[in-house]
Design a protein that fits this description.
With 154 residues, the protein is of the alpha+beta class. It has helices at residues 31-53, 92-106, 108-113, and strands spanning 3-9, 12-17, 21-25, 58-69, 77-88, 118-125, 128-135. The protein has a domain at 30-135: GMP Synthetase, Chain A, domain 3 (2-Layer Sandwich). The chain contains three helices and seven strands. The protein has a four-stranded mixed beta sheet, covered by helices on one side. A three-stranded antiparallel beta sheet has the order 1-2-3, with no helix packed on it. A hairpin with a 2-residue loop joins strand 1 and strand 2 (12-17).
């Protein structure tokens, strides 16, 4: 994967990837906000793709992420709390399995920071609180194979 950043003007930059390009407009949206948004979008794409590969459908997906950062430099992430809200045509246990598959196996951005950031998550599926403020196990991710999924290109 390769990305090239080019200064445009003031605090605007163009990011060019192998597939596309977009503008990073600081301070309207900071690079840290893009980073957090990218991590959440990575998991969101899994929560759509995994059920689809199983013949299931997810609707009304909303993932909220809240980060606490160091007060002093380097202002790295200390904690990340994720709240997954969605509806589907599956049972609560299957829905929780999809979230865990994303967090433990498929979402490379979350797995990149999981050794240095305490990650907690809650799951609200079809209006039911399925998991509340659970901690993700730190480490290098899971070697469990949940199967091949078609998600956003890495």
């Amino acid at each position: 994967m390769k990305v090239t950043i080019s200064h445009q003007d003031e605090m605007r930059f163009e990011a060019k990837t192998e597939n596309s390009s977009f503008i990073i407009d600081c301070p309207v949206i900071s690079p840290v906000e893009y980073f957090l948004s990218g991590m959440i979008a990575c998991s969101a794409s899994d929560i759509i793709a995994i059920p689809k590969s199983q013949g299931k459908t997810v609707t009304n997906l909303n993932i909220e992420g809240d980060v606490v950062r160091n007060d002093d430099h380097p202002r790295k992430f200390n904690t990340l709390d994720l709240i997954y809200r969605f509806d589907s045509d599956a049972d609560d246990s299957t829905a929780a399995h999809w979230v865990m598959a994303s967090l433990e196996t498929y979402c490379s951005t979350i797995n990149t920071v999981r050794d240095s950031v305490k990650i907690t998550f809650s799951i609200i599926h079809n209006g039911n609180l399925v998991r509340e403020n659970e901690s993700m196990i730190s480490g290098g991710g899971s070697s469990v194979d949940f199967g091949e999924i078609e998600s956003c290109p890495a």
